[in-house]
Structure prediction request, 281 residues.
Amino acid sequence: MAKSFEWSNLQVFRRAPLPRSYTDYFGRKLFLFLLTLQGLGAFSLITLGVIVRKFNVADSVMGPRIRREIHRAGISLLPMFGFTALALGFLVIGQTLSVLAEVGATQYLGSTMVIVIVRELGPLLTAVLVLARVGTANVIELGTARAQGEVETLEALGIDPVHYLVMPRVIGMTLGIFSLTIYLIIGALASGYLWAFLQNLPLTPAVYFSQLADSLTWLDFAMLGLKSLAFGFFIGIVACYHGLAQPLRIEDVSRVTVRAVTQGIIVCVLVDAVFIMAYLV
Prediction:
């Protein structure tokens, strides 16, 4: 399975000298982008097929691995996200409260929090933080395993590397980002009122949370769930693809990790843009 992703042509293009013509340079970059997009698309379909067909295969082995990845991408990050939620509520309130108070529009505080935190900053910030913390670890682990020949050893033993190595990580990051997004949003909304209270804003908890409830619709909940699941799935795919799907040497692991983080952020922005257009339609 792993040999099918040995994109030798991709490596040749990456190591080619810098062309003198800017047209050739940008053409080569575009070709590299298309090859990477093709590889990520194929890897996504293979991983999704393995998850659907082999989810219940070897439960005694895969169950603990999936739970470990959920813990690493979710539960173990709760303290960091608690602090982030507190800081996020302070930043949003600190930037908007004085402006709303000056124009007498404090009744829009709840809707502002919904638009900024629930729809945008909450899911996107969660995805980027998990990518930086867990995605990099997955790239390093899988890249090291690939460089040391452990993937070929699994194939020789008749074990599907995508099932054994990729599926737990993708599921763990998907569920972890989904859960942490909800945790971060609730914490940020609560801390937002805390900072408003400390600034002596004449706003009772009942009025504040009533504003939040009036601003939220079923579309917000549906989009929030779909967006966070999409972030987790595609970030997991990008991390596992760069760590596993291409032949690596030990000295290449750090370079590939940087590329995976960069492409993961780009994927998050593109996915977020798709959901923004869905909101506007």
Notes: The chain has ten helices and no strands. Residues 2-7 have pLDDT under 50 and may be disordered. The first helix runs from residue 8 to 15.
